[in-house]
Design goal:
Keywords: Acyltransferase, Cell membrane, Lipid biosynthesis, Lipid metabolism, Membrane, Phospholipid biosynthesis, Phospholipid metabolism, Transferase, Transmembrane, Transmembrane helix
Radius of gyration: 17 Å
Organism: Roseospira marina
Family: Belongs to the PlsY family.
Catalytic activity: an acyl phosphate + sn-glycerol 3-phosphate = a 1-acyl-sn-glycero-3-phosphate + phosphate
Helix content: over 70%
Oligomer: single chain
Structural class: mainly alpha
Function: Catalyzes the transfer of an acyl group from acyl-phosphate (acyl-PO(4)) to glycerol-3-phosphate (G3P) to form lysophosphatidic acid (LPA). This enzyme utilizes acyl-phosphate as fatty acyl donor, but not acyl-CoA or acyl-ACP.
Length: about 210
């Protein structure tokens, strides 16, 4: 097993760089749809990609964005060896991946909001918590048709789920991710309060 003090910064750096890959932007440009940041919310995530009308690209973005969070966490465990690894290593790498998605160096630190990446981290580091968070998101999305409200609810409840289903390091890490998500969604929160938030499936104009 690699020394933990060496593995921790390596996992954080690798997680950040992986998380910083802007899959939504790359996919929409390859599809000839231009810069996704010029439509809708200006976000590079799956919800804004869906506003182009391309459900296939939105699904691909969702899977890739969540996948990079999961890979960052699982890769950190592999870096140090699977047996007896401190779960903090995977949590730190996962949090770093979300920060990379939200503040990617390649895009002058202007990225997405990290919901899909965070869900990937939850599933990879404490799958029962991740599963409950995903179910919460789905239920809220079906009931209210607001992606932002679904995300805010799911991620706010993740630390509570972790309290009973995971370890203290997960509660702390998921709490950090929840705070980060709420901060990144502050404009959405204002629009939700004002009743002007865009609903899921709405095709935004460029």
């Amino acid at each position: 097993m690699a020394d933990f003090t060496l593995a921790l910064p390596l996992a954080a750096i690798a997680g950040y760089l992986l998380g910083a890959v802007p899959f939504g932007l790359v996919l929409t440009r390859l599809a000839g749809l231009g810069d996704i940041r010029a439509i809708g919310s200006g976000n590079i995530g799956a919800t804004n990609v869906l506003r182009t009308g391309r459900k296939d690209l939105a699904l691909a973005t969702l899977l890739l964005d969540s996948g990079k969070g999961a890979i960052a966490a699982l890769g950190a465990r592999a870096l140090a060896g699977w047996d007896g690894v401190d779960p903090a290593l995977a949590v730190v790498a996962g949090v770093a991946a979300v920060i990379g998605h939200n503040y990617p160096v390649w895009l002058r630190f202007k990225g997405g909001k990290g919901v899909a990446t965070t869900l990937g981290v939850l599933l990879a580091t404490a799958w029962p918590v991740g599963g409950l968070a995903c179910l919460t998101w789905l239920l809220m999305a079906v009931l209210f048709r607001y992606s932002s409200l679904a995300a805010l609810t799911a991620l706010a409840l993740a630390p509570a789920y972790a309290w009973g289903l995971a370890e203290p390091v997960h509660v702390t890490g998921f709490g950090v991710l929840a705070v980060l998500a709420w901060w990144r969604h502050r404009d959405n929160i204002r629009r939700l309060i004002a009743g002007t938030e865009t609903r899921i499936g709405h095709k935004a104009k460029a």
